[in-house]
Amino acid sequence: MGTIIKIFRDIPKLNHLARISTSVITRTTVKNEVKRPPSPFALFFQEKWQNLKTDNPEMNQNDLMKLASNMWKNSGSYEQQRYRDIFDDKMSTYKQSVKTPPKRPINSYIRFYMDNLDSLSVIYPNVTDRSKKTAEMWKNLSDFEKAKYKREYERDLGEFIQNLTDEDKELIQNRRQSLNDQRERRAIKKYGKAAWNEKPKVGAPNSYIAYIREHSALVPKGENSFVYLSKSWKELSDSEKSVYQEKADQLFELEQQKLSEWEAKNVKV
């Protein structure tokens, strides 16, 4: 697992450019997002709910749900099919109205994993064992062999960024916001809102990010920060860049330590 984490931290600067390109648009809410239609049973329940409450005023909501569930089971295939047909019509409309964001190309490590999936699946049918073996193989792969996957990824990533439309960026941002909202709701339910607000911010810093953090305040006045830092980074030697990789590793370990302390403090027994 540590190897996989390091790989994701070492994603090249081009990956950083991709994140910037898809997040520069204004933050938008997803309140107007088209919702997936309710299931056939949910449609049945919605239609019967008011009558169930009127006919059974002494029942609480859980009992009414059980009653509706029994009614659904005993309603017969013809009645159930009617709601399935309604659902299919709504789902067809939903699929036509919903636009999905374009998918980012898979990174270097996943490409390597997919290349070896068929052969490893025979020897390691268990997913966990297969993942561990793949991580071990990747760790022992030479820089020359890794470069092949890196070039393919950067090529596809460059094309992905170049072909992004404003609509694509908005779809990506809305999708990202929707997922973040879902994660936050689950986390608040698990830890409580007060504890969640105190959670330390944890990123995945790489050497380039560490360099930017250290030099962002040194950009000459009037210069474009991103262009200036990008150019100065390219001019560094490999040995100079390695210093910032060490700083990124230290920062990552510090952030993980803070996160572990927070989780230990707030975990509910």
From TrEMBL:
Highest taxon in the source lineage: Eukaryota
GO CC terms in record: nucleus
Cellular compartment(s): Nucleus
GO molecular function, one term: DNA binding
Keywords: DNA-binding, Nucleus
CDD domains (UniProt xref): HMG-box_SF
Gene3D superfamilies referenced in this protein's UniProt entry, alphabetically: High mobility group box domain
Residues in HMG box domain copies: 34-102, 102-168
Keyword Lyase appears in the UniProt entry: no
InterPro entries named in the record: HMG_box_dom, HMG_box_dom_sf, UBF1
Annotated region of DNA binding: 34-102, 102-168
Protein name: HMG box domain-containing protein
